[in-house]
């Protein structure tokens, strides 16, 4: 691929192996318990979740565990690429000294090469790496030798740094927006816990105090006494029910066709893994375009009163998502839900927001897992969840007040700002690293757009 390019003067084509030392990771023995549980990051492909720089991981090694695979230690700045498995080709940068497992090859970048430039270049090669690793074996793999032979276009170091700076600035803006989204999410969680778990406003009123931080009209919505229930003491006038008292299951999902046909129209079809992306970053770039009949769209178009819940192995089974109408503005086609998702319809957006937050808690404390069956492919028993999962049902006034608090957060989450920035980055990236677009032109382009 790289050899066919007409490169600007001073640009070269080099192999991955020429960029620095390539290290293949290794997993310490799991039969020795004290290999794990320390403070040394142990990076696996599941940690490569879209972050450019990985500094925290799901698992950590002890000094003993790291010493047992010391040849696999990589420094901060090493560029990592997953080279085994169905999601091979993902790239990231180590944010600190770390160990990777055997599914990752890492490049310890030599002087005169920008780690960030190499990361961006390799991030465009995922499909190519997947293709190279798919030849003949049951488990796709690109071994270290073949990985080292991959070619990369390498401008002079100053140009590398300038290209990385432009792309990095766009990613920085995206990450800042994500951090703001996470802050809003944490605030919404804190209010939910205060109102519906700890009952702080009710306890304050029961003690003859004004609930702190609440406007008088909001505080007036809460009772000042408790009453017994099967869930323990709850605010007087609230009740205990099941999920089915708040929501009903709607018609099943639609997967549609890969190709257009007579009378078929395009739609974005959400799966469980896309729910995860939407929940965390507000956009699911991998959500597939499918072709369906128009009446399928009419029947499966989520509204503000709906909660989607991942219901099969294609994603985090049991994870919910409130479907703000802002969601539909993210894509150029209508958004529907697939067979891997259940749609729960509530009486109002306020009920849907409350149901979403409540199901998130039940997902995180694993209550929802009581309604998941199957071994190799987990499946959610939505009927059992609706009929058997107990929930607290507050007054409608409190639900509306909480909804009013949360809706701006979701409007920001499903904002086109990050989508626009990501598309702009993805459009500039191949042009910059091929030399088709030079840095001054890219800088002028972004300046004209206020970026």
What does this structure look like?
By secondary structure, the protein is α+β, with helices and mostly antiparallel strands. Helix content is 37%, strand content 20%. The chain has helices at 63-68, 115-123, 126-132, 144-149, 157-196, 200-206, 216-219, 272-281, 294-299, 349-364, 382-388, 396-413, 416-434, 439-448; strands at residues 12-15, 20-24, 36-43, 53-54, 59-61, 73-74, 79-82, 91-94, 98-100, 104-109, 151-154, 226-227, 234-235, 239-242, 248-249, 265-270, 289-292, 306-310, 320-322, 335-337, 341-345, 372-373, 379-380, 390-393. A five-stranded mixed sheet has the order 2-10-7-8-4. Strands 5-3-9-6 form a four-stranded mixed sheet. A hairpin with a 6-residue loop joins β12 and β13 (234-235). α5 runs antiparallel to α12 (396-413), α5 packs antiparallel against α13 (416-434) and α10 packs across α12 (396-413). It starts with 11 loop residues before the first strand and ends with a helix.
Quick rundown:
The protein has helices spanning 63-68, 115-123, 126-132, 144-149, 157-196, 200-206, 216-219, 272-281, 294-299, 349-364, 382-388, 396-413, 416-434, 439-448, and strands spanning 12-15, 20-24, 36-43, 53-54, 59-61, 73-74, 79-82, 91-94, 98-100, 104-109, 151-154, 226-227, 234-235, 239-242, 248-249, 265-270, 289-292, 306-310, 320-322, 335-337, 341-345, 372-373, 379-380, 390-393. It has 451 residues and is of the alpha+beta class.
Shape call: globular
In angstroms, what is the radius of gyration?
Answer: 25 Å
> What is the number of helical segments per DSSP (H or I, 4+ residues)?
14
**Poorly predicted runs of 5 or more residues:** none
SS-based class: alpha+beta
**Main sheet?**
5 strands, mixed
What is the mean predicted local confidence, pLDDT? 91
Helix proportion:
25-40%
Beta-strand fraction estimate: 15-25%
Question: What is the count of β-strands?
Answer: 24
Strand ordering within the main sheet: 2-10-7-8-4
What separation lies between the terminal Cα atoms? 31 Å
